[in-house]
Amino acid sequence: MTHTKLIVREPVAGSYFWALIESDANGDAVRDVETAEKDFDSYEAALAAGTRALKRLVEREHAH
Fold this sequence. Notes:
The structure is a single chain. This protein is of the alpha+beta class. Helix content is about 35%, strand content about 40%. The chain has a 3-stranded antiparallel β-sheet, with helices on one face. The model has no long low-confidence stretch (mean pLDDT about 90).
């Protein structure tokens, strides 16, 4: 069983990226499902954009 989680990374100070990560039952990262195409100026902005991406992913999965 796998799980998808949203994380926000700050690879450079003041530059935030979100990523949807697939993890196994132990919580170990398996692969990036989707990542931000651009950086965000704040953690909150990246988190909000990542949350929207996660909602879209869930909607696509439930549409099948």
